[in-house]
Amino acid sequence: MVIGGFAVGKTTMVRSVSEIRPLNTEETMTVASVGVDSTAGVGAKTTTTVAFDFGRITLNERMVLYLFGAPGQERFWFIWDQLFSGCLGAVVLVDSRRIADCWYAIDRLEEQGTPFVVARNNFGVPKHSLEHVREALDLPGEVPMLDCDARDRGSSKGVLVRLVEHLHEMSLARES
């Protein structure tokens, strides 16, 4: 799962790393979203995800990683429970200009017991350090935090690799 607040780059991340042409449900924002979807800090945004994004990465002939990007607005949060079903882990994308927008995502993951990593999607020079973001989100030290550029395939892939490593570390810790 790739989740986070409105306009943090979830669709962009799925699009940048998927080996197939991603399925997405991007729709043009209309006047109906005025006063509902805050475009503060993202004034150039003209589309929004209304269901989910879907992509795929083949790891080897036996394993495939399916990517689901969830819409960030509160009115779509009811979809998250269905998308979380069977989910092994998640990436929470954060825009450091709007840190509070990802609190709900983190709360839901913690409530569901779903492991996650936090990736600060850099839109230019970050407004806050990673440590400041960790502190603002009240994240424990064991939750991995890293920088990324969701537009860049290598950067997005690095975030997913770190998530898989985190899941593996958690699995080893449970076994010992």
TrEMBL record:
Keywords: GTP-binding, Hydrolase, Nucleotide-binding. Belongs to the GPN-loop GTPase family. It comes from the Bacteria. This is ATP/GTP-binding protein. Pfam families: ATP_bind_1. The keyword Hydrolase applies.
